[in-house]
Amino acid sequence: MKLVHYLQVNWCILNYRVMNKILLAFGLLLLISSGCFAQVVGRVDKKTKEFSIASGQKADYMVFGFQFANATTQKLICFASNENVERANGNLQLGSYFDTERLPPGAKIMYLGMVGTFGKMSFIAGGGKATVFYLPKANYVIK
């Protein structure tokens, strides 16, 4: 009788440990696939150094460009998939957009290089006026 009880208790402990590992692995998979670690939404063309965010992305995103290479400094530009977020940040110096296709006519964003964990970008307006801002590297790739 004691042996049967011992085997039942050990079987329950084994099942508990296996289930915990499965749940932990599943939770980690969900976290990674949901994009919580980073929002890679932008792309820098290796040849032209032009930065772009494509329209119609399926993932929700909100990306800010800062005055200096520090996320606590003034926000200058916003790219967001949510209309309310985009509208709420419309008063930023360089504006707020869903994607780079909606920039003002003639405007473009050029990649200038890395500064720590930020990419140094130049917002070039249609008239040629350039404004530098910094975008977290986690938000774009260079291809």
How are the SSEs placed, and which strands pair?
Elements: H1 2-33, E1 42-44, E2 50-53, E3 62-66, E4 75-80, H2 83-88, E5 95-97, E6 108-115, E7 118-124, E8 130-136, E9 140-142
Parallel strand pairs: 1-9, 4-5
Antiparallel strand pairs: 1-2, 2-6, 3-4, 6-7, 7-8
Question: What features would you describe in this structure?
Answer:
There is one protein chain. By secondary structure, the protein is of the alpha+beta class. It has two domains: 1-37; 42-142, no CATH class. The protein has two helices and nine strands. The chain has helices at 2-33, 83-88; strands at 42-44, 50-53, 62-66, 75-80, 95-97, 108-115, 118-124, 130-136, 140-142. The longest helix has 32 residues, at 2-33.
Keywords, separated by commas or semicolons:
143 residues, alpha+beta, six-stranded mixed sheet, three-stranded mixed sheet, 2 helices, 9 strands, 27% helix, 32% strand, globular
Radius of gyration: 23 Å
- The helix content is 25-40%
Backbone shape: globular
Instruction: Report how far the terminal alpha carbons are from each other.
Output: 67 Å
Proportion of strand residues: 25-35%
Give a quick rundown of the structure.
With 143 residues, the protein is α+β, with helices and mostly antiparallel strands. The protein has helices at residues 2-33, 83-88; strands at residues 42-44, 50-53, 62-66, 75-80, 95-97, 108-115, 118-124, 130-136, 140-142.
